[in-house]
Amino acid sequence: MIGFDSHCHLDFLDDAAQCMAGAEANSLGRWLVPGTEPAQWHKAYQQFSEDDRVLLAAGHHPWFLPESPPDTQSLENWLNHHGDCVAIGEIGLDFFRHHPHSDAAEHQFNWFMAQLAVASERGQPVIIHSVKAHDRILQGLKRLPQVSGVVHGFVGPYAQAKAYLDRGFYLGAGSVVFQSAKTLDAFTRMPADRILVETDAPDQRVPEQHRNEPGTFQAITPDNPLLDWQATLGRIAEAREMDSTVLREQVRQNAASLFEP
After folding, report:
1. How far apart are CA 184 and CA 236, in angstroms?
2. CA 251 to chain centre
3. 214 — phi, psi (to 5°)?
4. Looking at residue 19, what is its pLDDT?
5. Is the CB of residue 138 less than 8 Å from the CB of residue 162?
6. Counting runs of H as helices and runs of E as strands, what totals does the chain give?
7. Would you say 242 and 192 are in contact if contact means Cβ atoms under 8 Å apart?
């Protein structure tokens, strides 16, 4: 039973091949690499397009937006010439105060809506990045209700989770379930068939004191961020009073349903 990490920046890892081999030895062997900006799309494609364990997406991440008004031509050209891209993203809004575009909410929103429109036209799922921006993200989604996908690294209470679920979205669980009781509660209460599990490696890590807790399948080595996936899965399974192997298979099916229909 192979685990599926639905959001992992493998191309940001200096030792990706070694980390992937270590993860495969622990039955984690499927990854989705999101896009951030055109140069990164090219790098990730060169590195992983021939690796059948890896799926690729493309999008303008809110941290790496051009200063110019929205122009999705480069994205559309890329998607037209790389039909193996399974999703558009990661796209979205980030209103964290240290974000380079945090003082340009409308600029972010305009780019977000332009990329949602591309997804709508192409019938492809989106990978949404939302930091302190759920209300505005949901406002945008109301304009294009046919668009679906995943809110990656979801942080928030069940009420906000349900707003996305009601629109057909999946939610991606990351290491924040170890730090946010309201977020863990959301993943405890939501339907299991809408949960994805991700590492967002190398950007987030499970707190070290939790890496060897029961439910993580086996000890998680601190030098391999990909194996944090198992700790996150174990945390949610424990909270749901659910067998970890059952949740593991459900999460795999969920990711396949969204990205490999």
Report:
1. 7
2. 13
3. -55, 145
4. 94
5. no
6. 9, 8
7. yes
Backbone phi, psi, residue 252, to 5°: -60, -45
Q: Which pLDDT does position 104 carry in this prediction?
A: 86
What is the spatial distance between Cα 61 and Cα 233, in angstroms, rounded to a whole number?
A: 26
Containing structural domain, residue 61: 3-259
Counted domains in the chain: 1
CATH of the domain at 30: 3.20.20.140
Hey, CA dihedral for 215, 221, 223, 227, is it positive or negative? negative
Contact 201, 232 (CB under 8 A): no
Residue where the block lists tokens 């050209």: 77
Cα separation values, 210 from 29, 200, 244, 257, Å: 22, 17, 16, 30
- What pairs with residue 56 in β-bridges? 33, 85
Give me the average pLDDT of each 10-residue run along the chain (261 residues).
94 94 92 97 97 98 92 96 96 79 81 98 97 96 97 98 98 96 98 98 76 48 83 95 96 97 68
Q: 162: which 2 tokens?
A: 């349900």
Sheet containing 170-173: which strands, arranged edge to edge?
3-5, 28-33, 54-58, 85-94, 126-131, 149-152, 170-173, 195-197
pLDDT of residue 221: 54
